[in-house]
User: Fold this.
Amino acid sequence: MSKVEPMQRGDDPLVERRVYQTAPDWHVHSYCQVLFGLCGQAELEMNGHLYRTRALSGVIVPAGYRHDFVGDADNCQLVVDLPVGSVAVPHVLLDKPREFAIPPQIDKALRLAVASGTKRRRQYDWLLAVEVIGQAVQALDGVTGDAATFPVRRIESFLRSRMDRPVSTATLAEQFGWKPRRFHDLFCEAFGDTPQHYQARLRLDRALQLLSDQALPLAEIAARLGYSDQQAFTRRFSARFGLPPGKWRNGH
Assistant:
């Protein structure tokens, strides 16, 4: 019998506290899932390999992977469901099952999220997903091969440090020593999006973090993220999230 789990809320990330039962179970879902262990231990089997979540240890469940799971009596994890096109993160970092160490700096955020309860606003889930997934990516060591392969992690860090203006594909290619067409093709394969579209998603993800500062004017947020004016920022933000940034901020 098929046990395909549907995405519960369109293209939004979903952040929930979950406890696995002590009786084994399994399912498959069409979105990627990142589990952040908080306490106890849960085990997941994928393709014949065993992965564990526990305090300061997480597991990536790629889209389309059957996973059998079971937990001990004390297990608890914060689970982030990531549909395609939600939080900007390189596809290649999430396309294989793996365990990862939870950076200590986000462990506190995870525990605060659990303490806040399960009935939270859409804005909170987006903000938490952007913050914890962005930092968790930095813990995924050794997944892009040696320095001779396409430098996904270095490209990601470079783009995150330059959100004040879009960087052209030609400039990126030159920065990392590739021909523009080849760089574009490899980028699309590794990141799951074109360089320009991926940067646009990164900038809007960052906008969610800046909007959490109620005192920061929208015009300044637009300027920090390289938009020509506040109106351009509002159009892009509304197109992606379905609300203008002012209304989004008021919903926090």
